[in-house]
Amino acid sequence: MSDSFFNKVYDVVKKIPYGKVTTYGAIANYLGSGGSARTVGWAMNNSHCFEDIPAHRVVNRNGILTGKHHFSGTNLMQQLLESEGVKVEEDKIVNFDDHYWVPN
Q1: Per the structure, how many domains does the chain have?
Q2: What are the backbone angles phi and psi of residue 93, rounded to the nearest 5°?
Q3: Which of 36, 53, 62, 90 could be a cystine partner for 47, CB 3.0 to 4.6 Å?
Q4: What local confidence, expressed as pLDDT, does residue 72 receive?
Q5: DSSP state string for 39-96
Q6: Of all helices (H) and strands (E), which one includes residue 8?
Q7: Do 103 and 28 form a contact (C-beta atoms < 8 A)?
Q8: What's the pLDDT score for residue 63?
Q9: Is the dihedral of CA 51, 95, 79, 60 positive or negative?
Q10: Is the whole-model pTM more than 0.90?
Q11: CATH number for the domain including 33?
């Protein structure tokens, strides 16, 4: 995928509201690339050099913090989510449906 796809992913991620999360697949679907959830994940892995992209708000379809290893510090992704009121237990968002945001 091209840099322009990554930039489109970043534009969507910037729209995720405070205290909400979305999934790699939801972003891919929104961009018209339903089978590209993994590519969205690659974009997120490369997003950490940009300060204005809230990558911590993107999780897998089950609410699991699969991208946590790409954050500096042991639990930074979890800490960022919890600072927004999103409870995490054992690397999974509690009450995932309550925090889930669908791009539209």
Answers
A1: 1
A2: -70, 130
A3: 53
A4: 87
A5: HHHHHHHTGGG-TT--GGGEE-TTSB-TTGGGSSSSSHHHHHHHHTT--EETTEETTH
A6: helix 3-13
A7: no
A8: 98
A9: negative
A10: yes
A11: 1.10.10.10
- Residues comprising the chain, all counted: 104
> Tokens 């489109």 appear where?
8
Domain assignment of residue 56, given as a range: 3-95
Residue 33, in any domain of the structure: yes
Residue 91, CA distances (Å) to 21, 30, 49, 64, 80 in order: 14, 25, 23, 6, 13
**Domain-located, residue 102:** no
For the CA atoms of 10, 74, 102, 27, the dihedral, rounded to the nearest 10 degrees, stands at 40
Residue 2's pLDDT is what? 65
Nearest to 44 by CA among 82, 10, 1, 79: 10
Tally of CA atoms within 13 A in the half-sphere of 29 that contains its CB: 9
